[in-house]
Amino acid sequence: MAINIFRIAALVALAGAAACGSSSEKSPWGALGGASGQGGTYGFDGGPLGLGGFTGMGGQTGIDGSTWTPAATCVERASALVEALTPAQRYGQMTTVDSYGLTVSEATSALLGSVFSGGSSDPAGGNTIADWTSLVSSYLDVAKGFAPHVGLLYGHDAVHGSNNVQDAVIFPHAIGIGASFDPALAEEVGRITALEMLGAGINWAFAPTVAAARDERWGRTYESFGEIPEVAGQMGAAMVRGLQNGRLGNGQSVLACAKHYAGDGATDGGKNAGDVTSLDEAAFRQVAIEPYRPAIEAGVGSIMVSYSSYQGTKMTAAKYWLTDVLKGELGFAGFLVSDWDALSQLPGAWPEQVETAINAGLDMVMLSHTWNAHSAADFASTLGALVDAGEVPVERVQDAVRRILTIKCEMGLLDGDTLIDPALTAAIGSAEHRAVARAAVRRSLVLLKNDGMLPLPKSLSRIHVTGSGADSLAKQCGGWTLGWQGLGTAGPATATTRGTTVLAAVGNALAATGTAVTTSGDGSGAAGADYAIVVVGEPPYAEGQGDSAQPTLSSTDVAAIAKVRSANVPFVVVLFSGRPLLLTDKYGVSVLDVANAFVAAWLPGTEGDGIADVLFGDYKPTGRLGFSWPATAEQIPINDGDGQIPLFPVGFGLTYP
Length: 657
Ligand code: BGC
Ligand code: BGC
Description:
Layout: H1 72-84, H2 87-93, E1 95-98, H3 104-109, E2 114-117, H4 129-144, E3 153-156, H5 174-178, H6 183-198, E4 204-205, H7 229-243, E5 257-261, E6 275-276, H8 281-289, H9 292-297, E7 302-305, E8 309-310, E9 313-314, H10 319-329, E10 335-340, H11 350-360, E11 364-367, H12 376-388, H13 394-411, H14 422-426, H15 431-444, E12 446-450, E13 462-466, H16 473-477, H17 502-510, E14 516-520, E15 531-537, H18 555-566, E16 571-576, H19 591-594, E17 597-600, H20 609-615
Parallel strand pairs: 1-2, 1-11, 2-3, 3-4, 5-7, 6-8, 7-10, 10-11, 13-14, 13-15, 15-16, 16-17
Antiparallel strand pairs: 8-9, 12-17
Helix pairs in contact: 1-13, 2-12, 6-7, 6-15, 11-12, 15-20, 17-20
């Protein structure tokens, strides 16, 4: 699908003041230190695209162009089931519990309608595919024993592939998929993700994030498809269609969960789980609510409520936004799940927290099981007492359970026990799936600068691949990869997965050519090579741990680039990052200025071959920025249409002749 939203702007010199370092530390740039202006010559007077003016993505909405509504038979079936369930069974349906530390007997006695695995919640034995199928099967077995038959939802954060499962293919994070501006790509990524999830019996994805991230300081910027709400909404809806395979229950389909409703990407200062105070209701609706509309039209069956607040009120407590606006005005007919232990963040004691959230319109609580004292049994007894006391109307509970069971009916979960298809298990991480991810990587790369060095020839005497990201799957994949904070981080400290780093990919690309490939991690060793590829970027992070007052390249990475530059070898910088980073260092040197070519590669995932495909010209770069690239720290937050002049505007991206 060709999208032509981009008014490529005139190149103007940015008259920014040089930000010279005040530190007494020696500049890694030698004579260059302090010489270059902030932002160099890459300021673009892009002018506003305007939030309302984004028209590029066409009106792909629901199935057959119509807004999804649940099948009448499912609503009837769910309503009848609600009547047949005991209060305890109803409360079990309204609960999902983190598998970490949960036991099968606890899930059985709590009559759980859902179990999920958080970012670092692995099966006890490890996280191989076999470990996962056996863990999930043990809970599917629990549900087999329930009468009446109510099925089981098994969730995880499949935000870039089935990313808790070792050797599953890891796709680019949403920021990279967004750079394609192609809903068909997002849909295909969702479809393959669903297949890989189902191979382990997992049928509920806590994805996509449909937030338009409006502040680069936010540690979850990379989970967003773009800063323009319409882009975030349309790409998110496409991901929903992919995950749900067009319509829930349509063969190989998992339940999608649009998140985090609403305002998570628009908090003051980009603070994770913070408060949105700078937007009035009209602006909040445009920026934070509108992205849900296409997802709802596409039939998203669940939505996760944000930890964040609007004007001081936690969304989990906001009846107006949950019930009046989302379920009322927007006509959302699926169910609302809380974020991880979000009730515990509400004012008051536990009974008040439960009362507030359920009366606000929450249908299912997500409990960590281990993090705080509130178990599924606590929730059931507390809600039961609130209903008995008339504090929570029984009709509210019936509505919640009806919504959940309606979606389970749509998914086919009421029709029989869920079985894991061994053919899908065998296809996890298959060559075919990896090929889709490799293509997604190619489409996600944004070429920001090229003095003619790219594409690289393949027949050379030597190419040098260096930098902290050159041989790092952890940096390449980012957060939410095996572990909550990424590969090799706390949780599964030994977590690894199968994938191809840039170094390996360059080796693959040149295997038949006789070109020597040398490497180092710190920029050394480039002298004498024909070209160097310097791969740098942020370490992996997730959620608030990624919040940063000044998202910038580390001094180690800058030093590596400076080292390559001093070797007088033409070089391309490949940047792994979860957001646009400030590219001018404390000596006033822009790494963009000193590099011959520069590629924003975001967090591309396991298929590094997609990067080599573009560097060596087998494919031309086509990615475009979904985010305004700030020239200076002072500009952040910077968004299309706000009157600031970014280093590069939304829509910017070069290609080869
Ligand atoms: C995150 C959600 C995630 C949930 C379950 C929360 O901390 O905010 O995005 O879906 O945990 O892992
Ligand atoms: C879990 C995540 C969760 C986070 C919340 C982690 O330990 O694995 O899923 O989002 O805690 O703080």
